[in-house]
Specification:
heterotrimer, A alpha+beta, B alpha/beta, C alpha/beta, B: alpha/beta, Rossmann fold, 6-stranded mixed beta sheet, 4-stranded mixed beta sheet, 13 helices, 16 strands, 42% helix, C: alpha/beta, 8-stranded mixed beta sheet, 11 helices, 10 strands, 35% helix
Chain lengths: 95, 392, 309
């Protein structure tokens, strides 16, 4: 922990987005799993994720960032899937 | 070159603010500060300053907008009195906690209830623990000079602290006095350009102001705040030295008046100090070794310096134009704390005077001095805290 | 530099609100913030009222904000951002700023409908070029689910608990969006995160209106609503489809529905999944449920009239 004379006067945080160093993945009780073959790349999971934990590259969903995913399950619930088969399902952690 | 004028305290301070040419001013009317902000608004309307004015809907928003503007990165001012300052209270702590050099004249006025619009020090004394630097002024000239110096002090890079410049409501704010204005260019050069630090408007380096700080760090931040406050005295003296070169007027942490060889003395702030100085002079003619100490920098409080100046007196009355019900007056508490560490110290009494604009008369000062003379002769202290000028 | 409002294109933009924030799992607020910042086409500086979003997004040395951000207190996000915006105008006037910047204040319903109402009204009247966004979760969630003036009638909160004598909040909710529109600001709107495109279009309209604008966005809170962690978007959608939370905008005085359900779903579909309304389904509380339904219906009928032109 920092000593008082090492602090920034006014408690100003000088590094934008420094929260990336705070990982919230350990909060998770359930884990989203991506079933690629059922994915239609609608990106709803990405848009509705409260934790910016759906990874997307070149406009395509590629998986989850488990360092931050809190396992809320919004992505799984909102996933339209393909022909009634979900592309995201929730699984209990430690299973 | 200085220009001799006859103006009110409000007009004088408004002119100091004009000369500082702030970037943003937030204002909300309150007697007796209203007229200062009206005058400043006319400078804005007539293009005499570059300032953007925010005419807020309350003093709480006034200080909130000042904090936003100051964090954005520029010179910011407002002014208030009494209830207005009380409504700002929450935000005063945030201005100082965020390390933002907001400059605010406070035209001192009593607090409700009962409602009273006249001068006393209850408002700013109530705000003494908010982390603001406090300068106090005896007359319009001092209010003007303190305002100009406040920009240099508050905006100093070692400090970046908000500053209150106090002047007595009506007695100073609305009385016309002879005083001297510095030239605009001289003030501009003296204050200098605002030095931008940690600006929100610096888009390339995004900052966050106002985090939640948990018990593991909060006290460290407060310790740091104390450290910054401890640098103020030095800056105030440096700025006063430069100001003397510019104006010929001398300022310190406080003013000592015929104190060197005094046996009895008053500690008295603001306009009433002027009245008391006349009484000191007349008592000296009568052979009474009277003196006076007029605090200027009340926060941070110059404990050591004040103790050194008072320790050799026999009896001192600390005059408070504010009260702490169930306690001693706020100035008394500081002066007695200052003297506690001295091996020699005078007998100390506390007088509450002038609340709600009640006149402080020479007779009040004289009466107090005579009581001190009696105490100095070994007559003993009858009551430590007493009200003067109250109908019994 | 304008990004098309298509998910594929938007997903290529940088998240200006990052992971590592500490909002509860499944909270609606970070979804809203993400959408708002993705919609913005200019650099944004934000202010935040004290509340869940604020305490969870900026703690100790961790900030989730990659934009300049300021929190000062609870009741004054509008006044605070108006100060920032005014300094920006001072910079512009002096030629010290070449970029066009947008200013957004975020507040919960407590910080907006209640304690921050005066500061908000003042800032709107003064005409600052700013967007105020209320993320409305219908109670003081940060302090532990106390009722606010946004809490709907009948809801169970910790300060209007559903008891045997008083079955939840006795009063109806305040219609803040209409109150803000009555300031005659260029743009006021209601939005929901389930309808992301509608929300983002509204943000763009608000930010280009060139004056003070207001958006009220429903923000499901599974802790306070006593629902599931995965249903923020589903409940947001039900709020819209039951007309509990109509999507509309008031642009230069003209009211327009931006979404009209083909068939209005019964309100109970929105209420049933939420523990805060559970007691309303007991036979003895039928009256309170009917009152709530009547409130919501009256608001909807009035909105239909107003938007019919």
């Amino acid at each position: 922990m920092k000593k008082w004379h090492e602090l920034v006067p006014g408690a100003v945080i000088l590094e934008g987005g420094s929260a990336v160093r705070f990982k919230t993945g350990s909060w998770r009780a359930f884990k989203p799993l991506w079933i690629k073959e059922n994915c239609i790349q609608c990106l709803f999971c990405w848009m509705y994720c409260p934790d910016m934990s759906v990874t997307v590259q070149d406009g395509k969903m590629t998986g989850f960032d488990y360092d931050y995913c809190k396992g809320c399950g919004i992505c799984a619930l909102e996933c339209p899937g393909k022909k009634g088969n979900k592309a995201i399902i929730m699984e209990e952690e430690g299973k | 070159m200085q220009k001799v004028v006859a103006v009110t305290g409000n007009e004088a301070v408004a002119n100091a603010l004009r000369q500082a040419n702030p970037d943003v001013c937030a204002a909300y009317p309150i007697t007796p500060a209203t007229d200062m902000m009206q005058r400043f608004a006319s400078f804005v309307s007539n293009g005499e300053v570059d300032t953007e004015l925010i005419l807020v809907e309350s003093e709480h928003s006034s200080m909130s907008a000042c904090i936003g503007a100051s964090a954005a990165g520029g010179r910011v001012i407002t002014a208030t009195s009494s209830q207005g300052l009380a409504l700002m209270w929450e935000m005063l702590h945030i201005a100082s906690g965020d390390n933002l050099p907001i400059i605010m004249p406070v035209v001192n006025r009593a607090l409700s209830a009962p409602l009273n619009i006249h001068g006393d020090h209850s408002d700013a004394m109530g705000a003494r623990d908010t982390g603001w630097i406090q300068l106090w002024s005896e007359d319009a000239q001092e209010a003007y000079d303190n305002t100009i110096q406040a920009f240099r002090i508050g905006e100093h890079l070692a400090l970046r602290l908000p500053v209150m410049i106090n002047l007595d409501g009506f007695i100073i704010s609305h009385s016309i006095e002879r005083m001297e204005y510095l030239e605009d260019k001289a003030v501009e050069d003296f204050i200098g350009e605002f030095k931008v630090v940690n600006a929100l408007l610096d888009l390339d380096k995004p900052k966050s102001y106002g985090p939640l700080i948990l018990p593991d760090l909060y006290i460290e931040y407060k310790r740091l705040q104390h450290e910054i406050m401890s640098r103020v005295k030095g800056v105030v003296l440096d700025v006063a030295e430069d100001f003397e070169k510019l104006s010929g007027r001398k300022y310190g942490l406080f003013e000592s008046y015929r104190l060197e060889d005094a046996e009895v003395g008053l500690v008295i702030m603001s306009s009433a100090a002027g009245t008391a100085k006349d009484v000191v002079d007349s008592l000296r003619v009568k052979g009474i070794k009277a003196g006076l100490l007029k605090p200027r920098l009340f926060r941070p409080f110059p404990y050591g310096e004040m103790a050194a100046s008072l320790q050799n007196l026999k009896a001192v009355a600390v005059m408070d134009r504010a009260d702490s019900f169930g306690g001693y007056g706020p100035v008394f508490m500081e002066v007695s704390s200052a003297l506690y560490g001295s091996s020699k110290r005078p007998a100390l009494i506390n007088k509450i005077y002038g609340l709600g604009g009640r006149d402080f008369l020479p007779a009040h000062a004289e009466e107090t001095f005579l009581e001190l003379v009696d105490i100095a002769k070994g007559g003993g202290i009858k009551t430590i805290k007493e009200y003067i000028g109250v109908r019994q | 530099m304008s990004t098309e409002l298509k998910l594929k294109e938007l997903s290529k933009k940088e998240d200006l609100f990052t992971h590592g924030h500490r909002m509860c799992a499944g909270c609606g607020a970070p979804i809203i913030v993400k959408m708002v910042l993705l919609a913005a086409e200019h650099p944004v500086i934000a202010a935040n009222a004290t509340g869940c979003l604020e305490v969870s997004s900026c703690i100790s040395e961790y900030t989730a904000w990659k934009i300049p951000w300021i929190h000062t207190a609870f009741e004054n996000a509008a006044a605070t951002i108006s100060g920032v915006e005014t300094m920006y105008r001072a910079y512009k006037k002096k030629g010290k700023m070449d970029k066009d910047v947008k200013f957004i204040a975020f507040g919960g319903d407590g910080g907006t409908y209640d304690i921050g109402f005066q500061s908000l009204s003042g800032a709107m009247e003064r005409g600052h070029d700013m967007l105020y966004i209320c993320y409305d979760n219908g109670a003081y969630m940060n302090t532990g689910i106390q009722r606010s003036s946004a809490t709907p009638r009948g809801a169970d909160t910790t300060t209007c608990p559903a008891g045997s004598v008083i079955p939840g909040k006795p009063q109806r909710r305040k219609d803040l969006t209409r109150i803000m529109a009555a300031h005659n600001i260029p743009y006021a709107a209601q939005a929901a995160p389930s309808h992301w495109l509608d929300l983002m279009k509204k943000v763009r309209k608000a930010l280009s209106a060139g004056g003070p604008t207001f958006m009220n966005i429903i923000s499901p809170c599974n802790r306070g609503w006593r629902s599931k962690t995965d249903d923020a978007i589903a409940l947001s959608r039900l709020a819209v489809e039951t007309c509990y939370w109509p999507l509309y905008e008031v642009e230069n005085g003209e009211t327009r529905l931006t979404f009209k359900p083909k068939t209005k779903k019964p309100l109970i579909e929105f209420l049933k999944p939420q523990g805060r309304f559970k007691h309303l389904f007991a036979p003895e509380n039928e009256q309170r449920l009917k009152q709530l339904e009547a409130d919501i219906d009256a608001e909807w009928q009035r909105l239909l009239k107003e938007s019919a032109g």
